[in-house]
């Protein structure tokens, strides 16, 4: 690869990086929350399919993979719900409901649609103007997210991965096989 080609490639990567930063910055609370809800819904479907295959005796190979992917999707939806809850100043009941629906199969997307229709996802991100000062600890975290989205997303993904790893180490909350056998 000659220098001109290498320089062109580096400039191309820089343009892609800039475009991805611009697209992150343009995402609204509504679009991010809806994307997280879709992710959570698809991971639920994958997990349920894997469980059907496992308990039908077809294969149990997909269950750990689907469980892990769903766990990651679940944590992403929870983090996004908390960020939007803080940004849009939801009442406590709406925020708690948003967290509860994350544990109910396929409920995240209907909740996101309901919240959007009720106006709970309106507007842009607070603290996008540097002159606006956050006062509370949650607002300071939100200001970091809005003002430094790439850095914050990397930090949040690392935290989600750490929590995810700890939860994988601890194992499932319920031993399903033992529960089924005890009821027989």
TrEMBL record:
<dbReference type="InterPro" id="IPR023845">
    <property type="entry name" value="DUF3817_TM"/>
</dbReference>
<dbReference type="Pfam" id="PF12823">
    <property type="entry name" value="DUF3817"/>
</dbReference>
<keyword id="KW-0472">Membrane</keyword>
<keyword id="KW-1133">Transmembrane helix</keyword>
<keyword id="KW-1003">Cell membrane</keyword>
<keyword id="KW-0812">Transmembrane</keyword>
<protein>
    <submittedName>
        <fullName>Integral membrane protein</fullName>
    </submittedName>
</protein>
<dbReference type="GO" id="GO:0005886">
    <property type="term" value="C:plasma membrane"/>
</dbReference>
């Amino acid at each position: 690869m000659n220098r001109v080609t290498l320089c062109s490639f580096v400039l191309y990567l820089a343009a892609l990086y800039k475009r991805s930063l611009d697209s992150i910055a343009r995402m609204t609370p509504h679009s991010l929350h809806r994307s997280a809800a879709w992710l959570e819904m698809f991971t639920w479907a994958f997990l349920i399919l894997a469980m059907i295959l496992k308990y039908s005796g077809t294969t149990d190979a997909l269950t750990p993979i689907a469980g892990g992917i769903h766990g990651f999707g679940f944590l992403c939806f929870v983090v996004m719900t908390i960020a939007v809850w803080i940004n849009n100043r939801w009442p406590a009941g709406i925020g708690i409901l948003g967290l509860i629906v994350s544990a109910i199969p396929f409920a995240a997307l209907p909740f996101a649609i309901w919240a959007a229709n009720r106006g709970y996802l309106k507007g842009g991100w607070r603290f996008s103007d540097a002159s606006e000062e956050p006062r509370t600890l949650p607002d300071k975290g939100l200001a970091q997210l809005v003002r430094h989205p790439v850095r914050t997303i990397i930090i949040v993904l690392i935290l989600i991965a750490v929590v995810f790893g700890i939860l994988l180490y601890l194992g499932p909350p319920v031993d399903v096989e033992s529960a089924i056998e005890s009821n027989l």
